Every structure is written in C-alpha cells, then in structure tokens.
Amino acid sequence: MQSAADDSTSSESWLAAADRRGRVSRMKQLLDVIDRYQGLASRYELRANGVDAGLIDVAAWYGRHMIRVRDGWYARPTERRDVIRAWRVGGRLTCVSASEFHAGIEPGPVLHVEVPRNAARLRDPDDRRRRLGPHAAVVVHWTRHPGPGDRRAVSPAHAEAVAARCGVHGAGLPRAAPAPA
C-alpha cells in the first residue's frame, strides 16, 4: 500500500518525467509564444515559432491553458473577456470599450470593435460558430486605416477621438448632447 508521502513523490516524479520527455517544456513554449504576441496568436504564428500542430489542437480542445477564440486564433483563458469577445467578432477594442480596457474598469454592455473595411465573416462575440446578428450588443467601427495601438485595443488617444465621433455609448442609447453654455 502507498502512503500519502509516496503519492506526492510519485506526482513529482511524473512531472519530472514529463519534463524530461519535453511535454511540460512544449506547453511552456506554446504559452510563451502567445505571450510574445500580446496574448493573442494565430495558428501560423504558433507554427512559425516551432509549436507542434497536434499540441495546438490538444491544448485548445482541453481549454485549460489556451482557448480557440475564432478559427486560427488562440489566447490564454485568463485574457480579458472583452478582448476575447472583440477578437471573436473579428477586430480589436475601440471607442469606449478601448477606453474602459485602458482604464482597467469593467466593460460596458455594448462592445465597440474596430474592423478593417474589407472584413468578412464577423462572428457573434459569445459564440465563434454563429455569425454576427443585428441583435448583438456590438457596434462595429469599419475603418480604412487602423488606428494606433496593439492587438487588443487601439491607443487611449485614438479611443477618445473615436468616442467623440461615435453616437452609440453605454446601453446603446445615443450620447446626450452637451449642455449649452
């Protein structure tokens, strides 16, 4: 019969054996590549950095260390929910959603997403298998020239400029007109 001490050493030895076989280090490599690409990486980027295609599929299927955001795009499950939802639609955060992201506050009920002018196959923010419908609480900002920023959101200055021109904020109600001076 094994004691509790034997169980802990056997799990430690399993981890050491897995590391010797390269399984732990391959998962670490996968996560390092995702981190290098600001938390969101394409399958092409993962493969170009030496990550095995089988490891990508298994890690996405289990969903513990990595999730499939949309076809060919992966993120850590700890990534902010609004960033994952924006990528699932097909773009990145902009307008008031980007301002909330940069301020570190909870996202509002309406998601503002910047997408290229020629973007196609936009997806529902909560289900990558469903197309984006007219009833979704998403404001799509079509753009010819993407604003400055990173993969997750436009820069704070650009977000404020877009928010000044946008007519939809908060719960989908038009922004109130400024009070007369």
How is this structure best described in words?
- With about 180 residues, the chain is α+β, with helices and mostly antiparallel strands.
- The chain is built from seven helices and ten strands.
- The strands form four sheets. It has a three-stranded antiparallel beta sheet, with helices on both faces. A three-stranded mixed beta sheet has the order 4-5-8. A two-stranded antiparallel sheet has the order 6-7.
- Strand 9 and strand 10 (about 175) form a beta hairpin.
- The protein starts with a helix and ends in a 7-residue tail after the last strand.
- Residues about 1-10 and about 170-180 have low confidence and may be disordered.
Order of helices and strands: HHEHHEEHEHEEEEHEE
What would you report as the Rg, rounded to the nearest angstrom? 21 Å
Q: How much helicity do the residues have?
A: 40-55%
Number of strands: 10
Name some characteristics of this structure.
alpha+beta; 2 domains; three-stranded antiparallel β-sheet; 7 helices; 10 strands; 42% helix; globular; disordered C terminus
Topology of helices and strands:
Elements: H1 4-21, H2 23-36, E1 40-42, H3 43-48, H4 53-62, E2 67-70, E3 73-75, H5 81-89, E4 92-93, H6 95-103, E5 111-116, E6 123-124, E7 127-131, E8 138-143, H7 156-165, E9 168-169, E10 173-174
Parallel strand pairs: 5-8
Antiparallel strand pairs: 1-3, 2-3, 4-5, 6-7, 9-10
Helix pairs in contact: 6-7
